[in-house]
Amino acid sequence: MKLIALLLFLLLPCCVADDFNNLANGFAPLTPHDAAIMASNQYDSNSRREGITLLSNSPFGGAPEYLRLYRDYIKNDHDPLVRASAIKALARFGTSEDAMLIVPWLDMSATQSIQVRRAAGRALQRLHNPSVVPALLLSLRNQDEENQVRTTIAIALGQYAEKRVYNGLIEGLRAINLSINLASAQSLHVLTGQVFGIDWDEWYDWSELVEDAGGSLFAFKSDYEYPTYQHQARWWDKVTFWEHRIHERPDFPVGLKEASVMSTYDDAETSQ
């Protein structure tokens, strides 16, 4: 008992010190200049990763000089965690053209890092570009790919109303993993408005009936919005009030939002 008490006595100041350090950081947060210096540290990959994360979680993270930094790290940084962080940052602030920079990192031959491939899949939920569809379908079909990566891909495909995507998602229903099945079924529901769950026979039979009748599979599709992590507040959040949390809501991907606005505008012009 005396030994346990002594250990607790020795450890307690360290824990308290860490808590007060976190508290101090909350009251005196890093400046944009500090974060930029960390993100540019060529000698410490952990510093680069943390700096990029700080920038991407800030309102100023989409500044042109930071976008150039994210793109450079995606192409050239040799640390997979730095590259994954840069992909996440570019997904938040980038353009639809950036999808073409990110999509090669879905390929297992390009990187063995699951973190990078997972980040690429989630990024392509936020960046709309039809040119990435073949790579998305290839990853979804790849049975050697990690299930979480394939699940993110099935979600991302829900923004593309194409027959090849419909067929690919039916293949996703046949994967030997429930999360892939459910993500594929949800994307099919978004694309068609139909509810057949994970029964691939029902989806296939329905598509045959619709096409034989000359109809469109996507006549009743709904709007696609990328998913976001929703933090459920707990009592300890009030205790650790200095910890900054990003609260995002699902939204239209970059590229798809602009296309929807232009389509609505064109329709209004035509009706006049």
Question: Would you mind describing this structure in some detail?
Answer:
This protein is an all-alpha fold. The chain has a domain at 137-237. The chain has 14 helices and no strands. α7 (114-126) runs parallel beside α9 (147-156). It is elongated, with a radius of gyration of 23 Å. The model is unreliable at 1-27, 235-244 and 261-272 (pLDDT under 50).
Tell me the strand percentage band: under 5%
What is the arithmetic mean of pLDDT?
A: 83
Number of strands: 0
Q: Structural class of the helix and strand makeup?
A: mainly alpha
Give keywords.
single chain, 272 residues, mainly alpha, 14 helices, disordered N terminus, disordered C terminus
Helix-strand blueprint:
Elements: H1 2-27, H2 32-39, H3 45-56, H4 64-76, H5 80-93, H6 98-102, H7 114-126, H8 133-141, H9 147-156, H10 163-173, H11 178-192, H12 200-212, H13 235-239, H14 256-271
Short characterization:
The protein has 272 residues and is mainly α. The protein has helices spanning 2-27, 32-39, 45-56, 64-76, 80-93, 98-102, 114-126, 133-141, 147-156, 163-173, 178-192, 200-212, 235-239, 256-271. It is elongated and about 60 Å long.
